[in-house]
Amino acid sequence: MGHEVPVTHLRKVMLEELRRRNFSEATMRAYIGAVERFARFFGKAPDQLGPDHIRRYQAHLLHERKLKAETVVGQVAALRFFFVRTLKRRFPPDSIPYPKYTSHRIPKVLSPEEVAQLIDAAGNLQARAILMLLYSTGIRGSELVRLRVEDIDSKRMVVHIRQGKGGKDRDVPLCPRLLETLREYWRWKKPKTWLFARGTPTGGDDHLPDKAVWYACAEAARHARLKKRVAPHMLRHSFATTCWRMVPTCRPSRS
Q: What is the DSSP string of the chain?
């Protein structure tokens, strides 16, 4: 973040605070990067800066770099997190203002036919299970990779999500078609702890990284020859738009 001496300590503390709140890997990288760029702009360690610097930096991003207001909002959110959560500095809310913007983009979604094409184009059974979970439950990618085998509750027909956004647990419906696919996947991989595990050089196991979910989406979209750039959140938005909770199957038919 600026200078070599405080970099390791500040980065470590900030990462710990982000992980405590269950931020995704992508968000953590974005927040760390935002603080590093902020410090680099002023040529000082970030803990030597404050609200006045944030306002000057915000003006630079908006008026000199011509970034969109919603992009700057993300940068400011990262800086607020750093000062308030990492450094424990209590600034008045209006001392680090967010830029105002009025554009509300409608999230891009996939049609049921496109979802069917995407799932059919999955490279293997693991990718198929990932795509079906994203679409049929509306689960976030970061939540999906942290699912444990025991979180698939076939008796109650729910998927238990631990420590989701805001640190809250929740249950989402498990449809019969998804359960069938997950059972087939379990017979193939036989995961013990993490539903989607990856092996380590020491022989233990850990869950897949967030980027594996992005890769599964991107590869399936490429094989399906979809023109849209498919990401995990697009399937989440598609789930919300079509409300597949209401139907007994979680894979749309193209017939």
A: --SHHHHHHHHHHHHHHHHHTT--HHHHHHHHHHHHHHHHHHTS-GGG--HHHHHHHHHIIIIIS---HHHHHHHHHHHHIIIIIIS-----GGGSPPPP----PPPP---HHHHHHHHHT-SSHHHHHHHHHHHHH---HHHHTT-BGGGEETTTTEEEE-S-GGG--EEEE--HHHHHHHHHHHHHH--SSBSSEEE-TTS-EEEPPHHHHHHHHHHHHHHHT-SS---HHHHHHHHHHHTGGGSS-SS----
Q: What is residue 214's predicted lDDT score, i.e. its pLDDT?
A: 92
Q: Residue 208 has which token pair? A: 């897949």
What confidence score (pLDDT) does residue 250 get? Answer: 54
In a domain, 100, yes or no: no
Give the pair of three-digit tokens for residue 175: 């449809």
Tokens of 252: 């749309």
The share of the chain scoring above pLDDT 90, in percent, equals 48
pLDDT digits (tens, 9 = 90+) for 71-95: 888 899 999 899 988 998 877 666 7
User: What range defines the domain where residue 25 resides?
Assistant: 4-95
Q: Report the C-alpha gap between 74 and 1 in whole angstroms.
A: 18
Which domain CATH number covers 166? 1.10.443.10
Residue 152 forms beta bridges with which residues? 159
The number of folded domains in the chain is 2
Distance of CA 69 to the CA centre of its chain: 21
Q: Are the beta carbons of 142 and 24 closer than 8 angstroms?
A: yes
